User: Fold this.
Amino acid sequence: MKYPILLLIISLLYCGNSSAQILQSEVPELQKVDVQEHLGRTIPLGLTFTDTEGRTVRLGDHFHANEPVLLCMFYSNCPMLCHVVLEAVAKGVKQLPWTPGKEYNIISVSFDPRDTLELVAGVKERTVALLGSEAETAAKANWHFLFGAEKDSRRLADSLGFMYYYQEENGQWAHPAVLFVLTPDGAISRYLYGVNYKEKDLRLALMEASQGKLGNTIDRIMLYCFHYDPDAKGYVAMAANIMKLGGAATFIILSLILGIFWLREYSRRTAARSGVKQV
Assistant:
């Protein structure tokens, strides 16, 4: 059972809650593959890993003030799903108006204790190459690919609610497809599921994680008008807030029109009293 289990995992993540429960009950292996959301929990930033330069680093070394973090779990020899997820992240990141290492950071952590520096560095090189010249240069320095001891990757996965297991029969790991959005201090802000991360969802999730410190005025208005819908697995328009915003805009526009009218009328009357003819 190689690729079928991975295809079922992808299908599971796109299903609604009731359909997912049915699928898990029908396929016992999938009960070991899940995401248990721990929104608001802070991940252990003191965990140590090795980066693609061979340096030992703390996970917290890649968390900085005012910079939210995109984090995903992977392993180098994954036959399909990990590479699809990483490519989806690269595709979404490429469309963002922000630069990794400047407005936000990206971290990819291997959960396979068999991973080596050569393997992980190869995955990083192939992934950042998808971004294009300028973005690739920034990502090489600021998209951090880490690997290390199983106890550390397992502890990180547990804190994220990322459930996976090793398939002895084929030597592969079964795991979900999910991207974690974290605040600058390491708290879990949002889970983005599947293998397609829309630019809008990434942008709003990063803004949400930065507590409004990332983005311009238009972005903040969008964040007010959209909220994350777990069933839709993305940000959807929030009618009530849009109506409030529309009402406020209408009030402002009417106030400006009435203000201009009042000023013109006042000017006309003042000129009439002083005997000056208005053109």
Q: What stands out?
A: Residues 80 and 213 are 36 Å apart (CA to CA).
